[in-house]
Specification:
The complex is a heterodimer of chains A (293) and B (263). Chain A is 75% helix and 0% strand. With 293 residues, chain A is an all-alpha fold. Chain A folds into 2 domains: 43 residues, no CATH class; 205 residues, MetI-like (MetI-like fold), CATH 1.10.3720.10. Chain A is flat and about 80 Å long. The relative contact order of chain A is 0.10. In chain B, strand 1 and strand 2 form a beta hairpin. Chain B contains 8 helices and 10 strands. Helix content of chain B is 38%, strand content 25%. In chain B, the strands form 2 sheets. In chain B, strands 6-7-8-3-9-10 form a 6-stranded mixed β-sheet, sandwiched between helices. A 4-stranded antiparallel β-sheet of chain B has the order 2-1-4-5, with helices on one face. Chain B is globular. Chain B has a single domain, classed as P-loop containing nucleotide triphosphate hydrolases (Rossmann fold). Classes of the chains: A mainly alpha (293), B alpha/beta (263). At the A-B interface, helix 9 and helix 10 of A face strand 6, helix 3 and helix 5 of B.
Chain lengths: 293, 263
């Protein structure tokens, strides 16, 4: 009985054949070179692990050297999770989250409803742009938070004051972003439609508007993030409810753990809205060439 | 009959140091079913002339007439194809092609029949429902030409349509365009800086001078049709080519000299 050596079946690579180089440096340190998908996931998860790990380590060290009371000022991630649960169950924090979310949605929607149409008109008609651009550009440099005392005088401490702050913070930025988007629509796209017999109105709603939509949604997504900043500032100054006022009260009681839990809550809410925008973008505009993550 | 006439068209722009004459008194007529090419050095205003023909720019003087009637606005009688394809990214290939008929409120069954035929003719079978992002440059331009043809214009205006394509694709597209033109016999005004392209496609070539843009010579291309890949290596092709190259070279030199004189 003869045995066939394995080497005959699969010949070993000869020394003369140049070897494919797959070194670590070549894979990970070539500029602009894509890395393996598994490595990307590992690094993304790893960043959170590192942050939490360092936080946990430092907090534990400080608590061990400075005594138990310091747990209030420098809590570990676990203690923050416990605090967060306590806030939700015993302190009605969900109520504050609800109020803040309502203000954000209301202020943001009112700003978007005004800014998107005006921005589109400014981007397409030079007459409209010449009229609105100078004042909007000037107001854009006035920080929305500086308006808070004035608005408290004019509107009081109610919901309309918070919503106005968000509106001011979002509207003036968004309108200029939308204007730029509209302005960048290639002339040739419109000209082709004219040479196919389209009227001005047809060109406007069948070519110009759809050409701007994907980027407008991108602009909404970016300004939504800013809306949170303005809301929290407004709530920190004066508010009965809301995440900002919860943070202020926590500060009075020296509860750093509650402040941290509240801030992380805002981060998670932001992440959720951002993901929603990304999903809407992907579903509504499947034709866009580069889909951003 | 569908004829386009450019009558005494002049174009001047107001610049910081007085007026700049981009086009000076240009007159030409493209009779029904003719394929006319405009060749010239870059910056000679040939694209401006085409935009004027389309009604997208108003000339300082003169007018454009389609079938004898003066026109001052763009319209479906003059379809245009741009170098940058400018397909609508949010519409499928089929809906891009049906854009013109849709505006004209042509019934959807009829639209679909026409677009199906054009998709087949333009070798886009299988891509009818794809978005433009899935198409190569050559396919995008074929779709853009199909869109212009679907509008059933009297005159087809083409502004360096193959300028962004690689040499191999360009040759294929030129062959496809002559085939299509033989089939539809549209009146075409085609702008290019590629001399070979102009000779291969055109019945007549207008050679333009630069600054101010003017028509320097008109050349009838007497190479019989149908023209194929072999046309390019024929003796008549080479003769005509030398003639045009000589003229354009002279003009390009003049342009450089005048730039130097100004500096």
């Amino acid at each position: 009985m003869s045995r066939i050596p394995a080497a005959r079946v699969a010949p070993a690579p000869s020394a003369a054949e140049p070897r494919r180089r797959r070194g670590f440096i070549r894979t990970y340190l070539t500029p602009k070179q894509a890395i393996p998908g598994r490595a990307r996931l590992f690094l993304a998860v790893g960043s959170f692990v590192v942050i939490l790990g360092v936080w946990w380590l430092l907090a534990t060290l400080i608590q061990n050297t400075a005594g138990a009371l310091s747990a209030l000022f420098v809590p570990t991630p676990y203690q923050v999770v416990v605090t967060w649960w306590d806030m939700m169950v015993n302190l009605g924090f969900y109520n504050d989250v609800g109020w803040s979310t309502f203000r954000i949605v209301a202020g943001f929607l009112l700003a978007a409803v005004a800014a998107v149409p005006l921005g589109l008109l400014m981007g397409s008609f030079e007459a409209v742009r010449s009229f609105f651009n100078p004042p909007i550009n000037a107001i854009r440099y006035m920080p929305a938070s500086a308006f808070i005392p004035l608005l408290i005088l004019l509107q009081g401490l109610g919901e309309d004051e918070k919503i106005t702050i968000i509106w001011i913070g979002v509207f003036f930025q968004l309108v200029l972003m939308v204007m730029d988007i509209a302005h960048r629509v290639p002339d040739e796209m419109l000209n082709v439609a004219y040479t196919l017999g389209a009227s001005r109105w047809t060109v406007f709603y069948k070519v110009f508007l759809p050409a701007t939509f994907p980027e407008v949604v991108d602009a909404l997504r970016i300004t939504m993030g800013w809306a949170w900043t303005y809301l929290i500032v407004a709530e920190l100054v004066a508010a009965e409810h809301g995440i900002g006022s919860f943070i202020l009260i926590a500060e009075r009681y020296l509860r750093a753990d509650r402040i941290i839990a509240a801030i992380i809550t805002i981060g998670i809410l932001g992440l959720i809205t951002d993901t929603l925008f990304a999903i809407v973008h992907r579903l509504a505009f499947p034709y866009v060439e580069k889909v951003r993550a | 009959m569908s004829e386009i006439e450019i009558a005494d068209v002049a174009m001047r722009f107001r610049a910081r140091h007085g007026d700049v004459t981009a086009l000076e008194r240009i007159s030409l007529t493209v009779p029904d079913g003719q394929f006319a090419c405009i060749v010239g050095p870059s910056g000679c205003g040939k694209s401006t002339l085409l935009m004027i023909a389309a009604g997208l720019i108003t000339p300082t003087e003169g007018e454009v007439r389609v079938n004898g009637k003066p026109t001052f606005e763009p319209g479906a009688d003059r379809g245009m194809v741009f170098q940058s394809y400018s397909l609508y990214p949010w519409l499928s290939v089929r809906r891009n092609i049906e854009f013109g008929p849709e505006i004209k409120k042509i019934p959807s069954a009829e639209r679909r029949k026409a677009s199906t035929e054009l998709i087949h003719l333009m070798k886009l079978d299988g891509f009818a429902d794809a978005y433009p992002k899935a198409l190569s440059g050559g396919m995008k331009q074929r779709a853009a030409i199909a869109r212009a043809l679907a509008g059933d214009p009297e005159v087809l205006l083409m502004d360096e349509p193959f300028g962004a394509l690689d040499a191999q694709t360009r040759q294929i597209m030129q062959e496809l365009l002559t085939d299509i033109w033989q089939r539809y016999r549209k009146t075409v005004l085609f702008v290019t800086h590629d001399i070979d392209e102009a000779i291969f496609l055109g019945d007549v070539i207008y050679v333009m001078t630069s600054r101010p843009g003017r028509i320097r010579t008109t050349l009838a291309v007497d190479i019989p049709r149908p023209r194929t890949f072999e046309t390019l290596s024929g003796p008549r092709f080479a003769e005509l080519r030398n003639q045009v190259v000589g003229t354009i070279h002279e003009e390009s030199l003049k342009a450089v000299e005048s730039e130097l004189a100004r500096a």
